[in-house]
Amino acid sequence: MKVIAPSILSADFSRLGDEIKAVESAGADWIHADIMDGHFVPNITFGPMIVESVRRVTSLPIDVHLMIENPNDYIPAFAKVGASLISVQAEASIHLNRSVQLIRECSARPGVVLNPSTPVQTLEWIIDHVDYVLIMSVNPGFGGQAFIKNSLDKVRALRQLIQQKNLKTLIEIDGGVNEETITDIAAAGVDVFVAGSAIFGSRDYQTTINAFRQKIGA
């Protein structure tokens, strides 16, 4: 399964509903929402109210990435307004197992996120309990950054760990995904491709998403 997940961080928020409908019509599989608190990362985006608005205009799965401190305080709120998948940063959750369990108890699919400098080994004792792992291939906090190339080695190491444990865990990647990078990213073993500016900054969303699918063989 290969999933294209446009990140609304790069959408035009003055017409967000239309933007979401447009990427859905263009063939998007998930809608990705980056939640930033100005503490864990040096930026502030939005909260549950926007996710609730997104849910009103689409039936696609909403993939919520919590780049925030104290994520357990907010997981229930995001699940309540319609988040289908919720991922927490390994670096921000002191009790990671508790966070993952809480996400599942709230009827969402749990994921864990690794920053570029966080090793795959961090996941050794939690990966059996998550549905997906999100590899950050840029430093989180801002859109439009260049892809960090050694993220591909990290994806390969993660794929090896998943295979060793005979798991079905999905690998997601976010940061610098575009037509120039997506072929190598797919070859490394990624299942879910988050793209913000590469999609929302393009002239034709369907043409861009179709080009992505052609390059990843999906």
Description:
It contains eight helices and eight strands; from the N terminus they run βαβαβαβαββαβαβαα. With 218 residues, the chain is α/β, with parallel strands linked by helices. It has a single domain (3-216), classed as Aldolase class I (TIM Barrel, Alpha-Beta Barrel), CATH 3.20.20. It has an eight-stranded parallel β-sheet with strand order 1-8-7-6-5-4-3-2. β3, α3 and β4 (85-89) form a beta-alpha-beta unit. The termini are close together. The mean pLDDT is 96.
List the helices and strands and how they pair.
Elements: E1 3-6, H1 16-25, E2 31-36, H2 48-57, E3 62-67, H3 75-80, E4 85-89, H4 96-105, E5 109-114, E6 132-136, H5 151-164, E7 170-174, H6 182-188, E8 192-195, H7 197-200, H8 205-216
Parallel strand pairs: 1-8, 2-3, 3-4, 4-5, 5-6, 6-7, 7-8
**Major β-sheet profile:** 8 strands, parallel
Integer average pLDDT? 96
Strand order of the largest sheet: 1-8-7-6-5-4-3-2
Range of strand content: 15-25%
Q: What is the helix/strand order?
A: EHEHEHEHEEHEHEHH
Structural class: alpha/beta
Can you tell me the number of structural domains?
Answer: 1
Q: Let me know the CATH homologous superfamily.
A: Aldolase class I
CATH fold description: TIM Barrel
How widely separated are the two ends? Answer: 8 Å
Q: What is the C-alpha radius of gyration, as a whole number of Å?
A: 16 Å
Level of helix content? 25-40%
Task: Looking at this protein, list some descriptive labels.
TIM Barrel; 218 residues; eight-stranded parallel sheet; 19% strand; 33% helix; alpha/beta
Question: Could you give a short description of this structure?
Answer:
The chain is α/β, with parallel strands linked by helices. The protein has an eight-stranded parallel sheet with strand order 1-8-7-6-5-4-3-2. Helix 3 links the parallel strand 3 and strand 4.
